[in-house]
Design brief:
Helix 3 (163-174) links the parallel strand 8 and strand 9 (179-183). The strands form 3 sheets. Strands 3, 4, 5, 6, 7, 14 and 15 form a 7-stranded mixed sheet that branches. Strands 10-9-8-11-12-13 form a 6-stranded parallel sheet. The protein has a two-stranded antiparallel sheet with strand order 1-2. The chain starts with a strand and ends with a strand. The protein is α/β, with parallel strands linked by helices and 331 residues long. The chain has helices spanning 46-51, 123-145, 163-174, 189-195, 229-237, 260-264, 279-293, 299-302, 311-319, and strands spanning 5-14, 17-26, 35-44, 69-77, 87-91, 106-109, 114-116, 155-157, 179-183, 199-202, 219-224, 238-246, 268-271, 303-306, 326-330. 48% of the residues are buried. It is built from 9 helices and 15 strands.
Length: 331
């Protein structure tokens, strides 16, 4: 098995020379781990786009195989929790960062990163959901843990045409929430409504020239994968006792906010990290997400399939904000 060849997207940088492309590897080229997986599908995430840059802040050593999520079948395992032929998925941890990732027909990973595929969830559906869908599900789970329920008022989703945003809209709508979706893309209003958005908010509304310490109370809660100045406006606009779940910083890492929303309205700012989210809690979250989404048919609207050799192009597109929904890679 160690000499069996397979294809992987390999990034290499030696001095000023930078290369990215599909290459043949063997199992001997893979890093250590208890579980060897034949990968069926992976995805292209924003972090994967960063990994494909010549001066990446993501990749720690070269050569490198990107891909922060994967789904496939166990080939071999030295951990008794997993057996050959078992359908599994992996997202987060160090996959595609310090450890060879999922944009490869074979992957070897630590057993503690591996999650059994829930019943009824096919590998391509799992990767249509992927890290983006898991992050959206985590965001909603935290909001509900902090008291959010349908009927309390509209829930805002920023960056709504992106991966996390698309899934947040679809999941919230499936659970009976009134969803307000924010986007700067006028051509995508019908797409967002097809996922269940009941209101469309222009992105410019969320970044006024000046933000008052407290704005008019508009939303019961918000899912925010954008961050930056618009997050400051969200915090000032959330209704009393509401929460904002933030998972991204495409709008910037600085928040020009004040303490007023927190101490005068009891607003909660909830940080969402899908990288180190405990593996023992992931299965139930994946299971509920699949149960919410599969009956809706939204996965076919949110995800498109590409080939492995198309990844560099789509990695650039996702960094430029030109991707709607999810891009999954068939291996």
């Amino acid at each position: 098995m160690d000499t069996e060849t397979f294809q992987a997207l390999v990034i290499d940088k030696q001095g000023e020379r930078f290369e990215i492309g599909v290459k043949e590897l063997t199992v001997e080229d893979l890093p250590e781990g208890e579980v060897l997986i034949r990968v069926s599908f992976s995805g292209v995430n924003y972090k994967d786009g960063l990994a494909c840059l010549p001066n990446s802040s993501i990749v720690r050593t070269y050569p490198h195989v990107p891909g922060i999520d994967l789904a496939g079948t166990v080939v071999a395992s030295t951990d008794p929790r997993f057996q050959a032929g078992q359908a599994v998925l992996v997202t987060g941890f160090e996959l595609g960062v310090s450890h060879f990732g999922g944009l490869s027909q074979m992957a070897r990973v630590p057993a503690d990163w591996v999650v059994p595929l829930p019943p009824g969830l096919e590998p391509h559906d799992a990767m249509a959901i992927g890290t983006a869908g898991l992050t959206a599900a985590m965001s909603i789970d935290r909001l509900e843990h902090n008291g959010l329920q349908p009927g309390q008022g509209p829930v805002l989703v920023t960056g709504a045409t992106g991966g996390v945003g698309s899934f947040a809209v679809a999941l919230l709508a499936a659970r009976g929430y009134h969803v307000a979706a924010s986007t700067g893309k006028a051509a995508e209003h019908d797409y967002l409504r097809s996922l269940g958005a009941q209101e469309i908010i222009d992105r410019s509304e969320l970044s006024p020239e000046s933000i008052k310490p407290l704005e008019k109370q508009r939303w019961a809660a918000a899912v925010d994968p954008v961050g930056g100045k618009s997050l400051a406006y969200l915090l000032a606009s959330i209704r009393y006792g509401g929460s904002v779940a933030v998972s991204g910083l495409t709008g910037g890492g600085a928040i020009p906010t004040r303490v007023h929303p927190f101490i005068l309205r009891g607003v909660n700012l909830l940080g969402i990290d899908s990288v180190q989210y405990p593996a023992e809690r992931r299965y139930e979250l994946w299971k509920r997400t699949a149960e919410d989404l599969l009956p809706t048919g939204h996965l076919s609207r949110i995800a498109r399939r590409i080939r492995l050799d198309e990844v560099p192009h789509y990695a650039e597109e996702i960094l430029q904000g030109r991707i709607k929904g999810r891009v999954i890679v068939e291996l």
